[in-house]
Structures are given as structure tokens and as C-alpha cells.
Design a protein that fits this description.
About 45% of the residues are buried. The chain starts with a helix and ends in a 14-residue tail after the last strand. Strands 21, 22, 24, 26, 27, 28 and 30 form a seven-stranded mixed sheet that branches. Strands 11-10-13-18-15-16 form a six-stranded mixed sheet. It has a five-stranded mixed sheet with strand order 12-20-19-14-17, with no helix packed on it. The protein has ten helices and 33 strands. Bound molecules: CU-O-CU linkage (C2O) and copper (II) ion (CU).
Length: about 700
């Protein structure tokens, strides 16, 4: 498959090139009438004819590249081009080919008629001038350029506009109005030329002033438009996430295809507040942890001291371990993080009130305050925790840690030595750089041969991490805390771990050393296991094939698959565009053309089977993380998954990829569903999953203490 970023990037670039090309005949054709009607006009007409031919060829090229995108990635990837951008230049191109080209052709045929008296204008010449200034020849070429300009602007700035009917109406309105104005102007010019004697082009200064005026007008219009877009992007001072503007049924229909109509008068749903959806409020906890959010200075191996935000003064925060089925109580205290903090248990499907999202399930905990989380760990596996208040900033600064839940029934073979190591990959802000368990550089561990090793890889960073394990074959025993069924032994594969995702890797320690690095090229960071704790670090292989969870392990009966009738079916298309978010200009990662709070609200009823299709037409990875549920991956790029059931809570959707996932709505509440590139999330790449009847008393916005992203 060709690289999506390259192909789609070229396709997008062609819109700009095409527009620039159309300028040549559009500007050139106006000067025809000022050429002496003999040879000079003929040769200029030939030039313009050639340029027009070139433009029409480029239009074919545009269609070709759209076809290539379609051929490799399918209809959803070209839908907006076909319905939105291409017609804007296609229609004028057809008119230009049918109406302007024949006239240009006539003018480019040499005239043999004798020249009249110098200074006088013959009828022959008059006729040629009429033709050379005719709106039928000039306006189609100008309209083509205008259409190409509109298409390029839309495609480069708002690539998902067909989902925004208003924008398309404006574009077509501008094309029509612009062409009409040009027609009127050109008809008037034609009459003027017919009347006058010898023609002179307007003086340079006049033309300069005309150009400057047009530019000024355009600048003024764009400034007005930019300012209103900026204003419109300002987030409400306070709002409830449970009633985002996009919850009403009309926009729901727009975002859900084939969405079953469930709500009927017969099924009245009792309203419940998220604050009632707690874990057990009584009973002695089996584990009790206190996590104090506080500023701390951390000295990295390099000697550098970095100001971090920590839980308990540690970076990363303390590793929490518990057993499946245990009641866990965590007391969160905030010492001095002035914006407030929370703790979200990433991947653990806790009751909604314990989910730790500021503004959705609780208020951010301000300095001096406390919040208690109580839940039973129903799952086992590798998880992590992090603040979900201003998470882009707070996670970057260090408010995170790993959480391991051991299976209730440990199959203990005490004779076998074991090593169970959790490794948190993260890029620390404030100049800290990439760290593994808070370390820059090499970690060494002495492990005797024969030891059964489990490495729990946690990617707490915002970008996929390409882990490489050298010196042994291994198994990927668990993905996002879910055991893989019959994981086969593999070697020499890159483990591309999604941002927010986890892989448990197991192997038996060989006689020689084993090296794990979160990189494909840089072997200066990582973990070296060896029988004597020393040893050389091997060279990494930059081109190893990527481990593919879609076909790994052995299949098992599935609770649902692509053939299942789903109660809800949501289609979520990711694009990138320029725009304002809360008043700031940035690249926006849109879901169905929108950013929060205008992104679709995924409505469900308890017990629903829900399918989601992710389509990534943008140029970056989007690790989609659903709170409170695990998603089963049904297919990727139309191909059903084949290996062990692939359950995930954070699925990386790479550019050009389409995934179908499904889950059972079995954990009532208000849940976030967002991109775990936390920068994207903070720019509005978040949605919510809301169970019918669930309300939340918490609010987000500048006027509240809560800014979850
Ligand atoms: Cu790990 Cu909503 O996040
Ligand atoms: Cu993203």
C-alpha cells in the first residue's frame, strides 16, 4: 500500500499548484486586446492557448491523484474531494474548454488581411478586438482560476468541509457571484474597446493602484472573517459535558449512520447522576495508597535537575500493585499544584464516579484539598494512572505512574525464579527528554539464565513508541492489560506501542544478554538484562517489521463480530485543518469536521452493542482511548482480525487507516473518548460517551476549576 501521508499530501499540494497554473492564462488573456491585431495578437493567443491546455492537463492530473487515493484507501478518503472541492474547478474547466478554447483558437490563426492606414482602425481589426475582449473567452478562464482558488483554500484550510454544508454554499456563492461580476465588468470593457480608437493599456501606476485596492479588499474581508472565526471558537465560560451542544437528536443522526432508534416512550430511563455511580463506599480496603500531588525537583542521570510535578515527589509516580478482586482505596491530596489535579485509572474500567476526569466525574482537587477513590479491581494486567486535569500539561510534567493488577489466582511455580518489571516510557517536559522509568540512559539488571521474565511496557508519552527487544525470542503476553490467547514466540519485530497503550512481553532469560530499547536507532537508552549485570549494548536494527496484533495468537469465540447487529453504529472521521481553538490559531485535529464541544456525543443505553469506525484522513497518528470500556478490534482497512481477540482501550489509528471496533455498553456513566496524543486532545480532539439518563453536576470552562485536557 502506498504511503498515505505522501499520496494525500501530494494530492493536497496539487490543488495549490493547479491554482497557481490557472493564474497564467487568466491574467494573460486580458492583455490580448492590447496587442496589435496582427502577428503579435496571434502569437500571444497561441501562448495563452498552450497555457490553457496545460491547465486542463493539470486538471486531469488532479483527477488522477484522486483516483490513486481512492484506489488504495477507498471512498471515505475521497468523498469530500469528489463532492466538495473538485466540482468547484471542474465546472469552470469544462466551460473554459468548450467556450473559451474555440475563441482562443480562432485568434491564434494568422490573419492575412492587409493592414489599414496607420492610426486608423479597420473593421477587421475591430472584429478581432471584439473577440479578444469578449467575456465568453475571458471570464471562463478567470472563473476557473477563482474556482481553483476556492478549492485550494478549502482543501488546505478546511479539508472536511463537505461535512459543513454552509462552507460549501459560501464557496459556490462566491464562485457564482465572482463570475457574474467578472462578466459584467468584461462586457463593459468590450463595449468600451469597441468605441475607442487606438488602445492603450492603463498606466502602470493605475494598474498598481487597482491591484493594491483588490488586495486591500481581500485582506479586509479575511480579517473580518478570521476575527469572527476566532470569536466563534471561544469555549463557553462554563458548560456541562453531559449536555454538550451536539447531544440533540438531529446532530446525532448526522454523526451516526444506521443508528438504531431505541428511545421510546415505553422505555423510560431513570435519571442518575455520575456522583451516584461510585465504587463500594463501605468495607475495609485491601490496599490503601496515598498519592500527594506536589512540585519536586528531579535529578536525571545526566545530572540535569528538572522541575517536575509529581505524585509523592517521585517521577514517575509510585508503582501501585494490587490483586484482582481487591478493594483499592486511593487518597489523592494536592499539596501545591495550583490548577488542581485528579487521577484517572487508564485502562481500568472502574465505576464512573472513580474515573477521575475533572469536570465530568469530579471537580479538580485544589491545593489543600483531598479526594478519595474507591473501586474493586475487576481486571488484571498492566495499567497506568495520570492526572486528567489539564492533562496535556500535567502528564508532560510528570503526574503519572504505573498500576499493576495481579491475577487473583496466581499460578505459582515457586521453584522458578521470576522477574516482573514495569517500564514506563515518557517524555518529560521542561527539558527532561525521553525517559524509561524516569531515567535517561541505560538501565542494567542482573538476571540469572532461566528466569521467567515479564516486562510490562507502558507508553505514557503522546506518540507511538517503537520498542525493540534483542537477544531473545519472546511472546506478547498481554495487550492493554488483556491476556493474549496462545501468544506465539516471535523475534526481530518492532513493538510499536500506541500512546497510552501497554504490552506485556515475556521470555525466559537466555545465557547471554537481552536488550530492550524504546527506539529503532538509539541504543543509548534502554534496559540491558545480563547474567552478570554487565555486557555490551547491541546495535539496533532500524528496519524490523512491526508486530501486528491483528493476526497474533490464536482465535477464540468472540462475543460479537462484523456480522453482529449493532444497536449503535458510529462513524468517526479524523481530519486536520487550520483553525481557532478557544481563540488560538492552530492545526486542529477534527472528528467529523468538528472539535470539542461540537464533536459528536456518542449516546448509548445500558446493554447496547456499539460499533465505531475510525477513519484517519489526517497526517498524524491518533491513539483513540475510550474510558471505562474495552474495545474489540473487528477489522483494519476492511480486513477482519484473525488472531487472538484483540481487546484494547487505546487504539492507534495511523494516517490512512480505517478500524472497526465494538464494545458492550455495560458501565453506565459519562465517559471520555479521546485522542491520547494529549496535545490533540487539548485542541478539542475529544468526544464523550453518554448513557441515556446519566447526568453530571460538574462543569468545565474558564469560569470553573475544571479543564480536563
Ligand atoms: Cu489516559 Cu482520558 O486518558
Ligand atoms: Cu490525535
Amino acid at each position: 500500500m502506498p504511503d498515505f501521508v505522501v499520496l494525500a499530501g501530494v494530492d493536497q499540494g496539487l490543488y495549490l499548484i493547479f491554482f497557481l497554473l490557472t493564474l497564467l492564462p487568466a491574467l494573460g488573456v486580458k492583455t490580448l486586446v492590447h496587442r496589435p491585431t496582427g502577428g503579435p495578437m496571434t502569437s500571444r493567443a497561441r501562448w495563452i492557448l498552450c497555457l490553457t491546455g496545460l491547465v486542463l492537463l493539470a486538471a486531469l492530473g488532479q483527477w488522477g491523484s484522486t483516483w490513486l487515493v481512492y484506489d488504495s484507501f477507498g471512498w471515505p478518503y475521497i468523498k469530500d474531494k469528489m463532492l466538495g472541492f473538485l466540482p468547484l474547478s471542474l465546472l469552470p474547466a469544462i466551460v473554459a474548454a468548450l467556450v473559451a478554447v474555440p475563441r482562443l483558437w480562432r485568434l491564434s490563426v494568422p490573419q492575412l488581411a492587409a493592414q489599414g492606414m496607420p492610426g486608423a482602425v479597420t473593421d477587421e481589426e475591430k472584429a478581432r478586438r471584439q473577440e479578444a475582449s469578449s467575456p465568453e473567452m475571458i471570464v471562463p478562464l478567470q472563473a476557473l482560476s477563482l474556482g481553483a482558488f476556492l478549492a485550494a483554500t478549502l482543501h488546505l484550510i478546511l479539508p472536511s468541509v463537505t461535512l459543513q454544508k454552509e462552507m460549501l454554499m459560501i464557496a459556490w456563492g462566491l464562485l457564482l457571484a465572482g463570475s457574474s461580476a467578472l462578466w459584467i465588468w468584461q462586457s463593459w470593457q468590450q463595449q468600451r474597446y469597441a468605441r475607442s480608437g487606438p488602445l492603450h493599456r492603463p498606466r502602470l501606476i493605475i494598474r498598481f493602484l487597482q491591484g493594491a485596492f483588490v488586495l486591500l479588499l481581500l485582506t479586509a474581508c479575511s480579517l473580518v472573517w478570521l476575527n469572527s472565526a476566532r470569536q466563534a471558537s471561544l469555549l463557553p465560560e462554563r458548560m456541562s459535558m453531559a449536555n454538550h451542544p451536539a447531544t440533540d437528536s438531529r446532530s446525532m443522526q448526522a454523526s451516526a449512520e444506521g443508528h438504531a432508534q431505541h428511545t421510546s416512550a415505553a422505555s423510560v430511563i431513570k435519571p442518575v447522576s455520575v456522583t451516584e455511580l461510585t465504587g463500594p463506599q463501605t468495607g475495609a480496603p485491601a490496599r490503601r495508597f496515598t498519592l500527594t500531588a506536589q512540585r519536586a525537583k528531579v535529578q536525571l542521570r545526566s545530572g540535569k535537575v528538572v522541575e517536575t510535578w509529581t505524585y509523592n515527589g517521585q517521577y514517575p509516580g509510585p508503582l501501585l500493585r494490587a490483586k484482582q478482586g481487591e478493594l483499592i482505596e486511593v487518597v489523592l491530596e494536592n499539596k501545591d499544584i495550583s490548577a488542581g489535579v485528579t487521577i484517572h485509572w487508564h485502562g481500568l474500567n472502574v465505576p464512573n464516579a472513580e474515573d477521575g476526569v475533572a469536570g465530568a466525574t469530579q471537580d479538580a482537587v485544589l491545593p489543600g484539598e483531598q479526594h478519595v477513590y474507591r473501586f474493586v479491581a475487576e481486571q488484571s494486567g498492566t495499567f497506568w494512572y495520570h492526572s486528567h486535569q489539564q492533562s496535556a500539561e500535567q502528564v508532560k510534567k510528570g503526574l503519572l505512574g504505573a498500576l499493576v493488577i495481579e491475577p487473583a489466582a496466581q499460578t505459582n511455580t515457586p521453584s522458578l525464579p521470576t522477574l516482573d518489571l514495569t517500564l514506563v516510557h515518557h517524555k518529560l517536559g521542561g527539558g527532561g527528554g525521553l525517559t524509561l522509568n524516569g531515567n535517561i540512559g541505560l538501565l542494567r539488571e542482573k538476571v540469572s539464565p532461566g528466569t521467567s521474565v515479564r516486562l510490562r511496557l507502558v507508553n505514557a508519552d503522546s506518540f507511538p513508541a517503537p520498542f525493540q527487544l534483542q537477544g531473545t525470542s519472546f511472546q506478547v503476553a498481554a495487550i492493554d492489560g488483556n491476556e493474549v490467547n496462545e501468544p506465539n514466540l516471535i523475534a526481530n519485530q518492532t513493538l510499536l506501542l500506541a500512546a497510552g497503550g501497554r504490552y506485556d512481553v515475556t521470555f525466559t532469560m537466555p545465557d547471554a544478554s537481552v536488550f530492550l530499547a524504546p527506539s529503532q536507532t538509539d541504543n543509548s537508552r534502554g534496559l540491558l538484562l545480563s547474567p552478570d549485570g554487565t555486557g555490551e549494548v547491541p546495535v539496533l536494527h532500524p528496519d524490523l517489521p512491526a508486530f501486528d496484533p491483528a493476526s497474533y495468537g490464536s482465535p477464540q469465540p468472540l462475543p460479537f463480530d462484523s456480522q453482529t447487529r449493532f444497536d449503535r453504529d458510529y462513524r468517526l472521521v479524523f481530519d486536520v485543518q487550520f483553525g481557532f481553538y478557544d481563540g488560538k490559531l492552530d492545526g486542529l485535529w477534527t472528528i467529523n469536521g468538528k472539535v470539542f464541544p461540537h464533536t459528536p456525543m456518542l449516546m448509548v443505553k445500558e446493554g447496547d452493542l456499539v460499533k465505531m469506525t475510525f477513519i484517519n484522513r489526517s497526517y498524524m497518528d491518533h491513539p483513540m482511548h475510550l474510558h471505562g470500556h474495552h474495545m474489540l478490534v473487528l477489522s483494519r482497512n476492511g480486513t477482519p482480525t484473525t488472531g487472538s481477540p484483540w481487546w484494547t482501550d487505546t487504539l492507534n489509528v495511523a494516517p490512512g487507516e480505517t478500524y472497526e471496533v465494538a464494545f458492550r455498553a455495560d458501565n453506565p456513566g459519562l465517559w471520555m473518548d479521546h485522542c491520547h496524543n494529549l496535545i490533540h486532545a487539548s485542541l478539542g480532539m475529544t468526544m464523550h460517551l453518554l448513557y441515556e439518563g446519566v447526568t453530571s453536576p460538574f462543569e468545565v470552562g474558564h469560569q470553573t476549576r475544571n479543564q480536563p485536557e
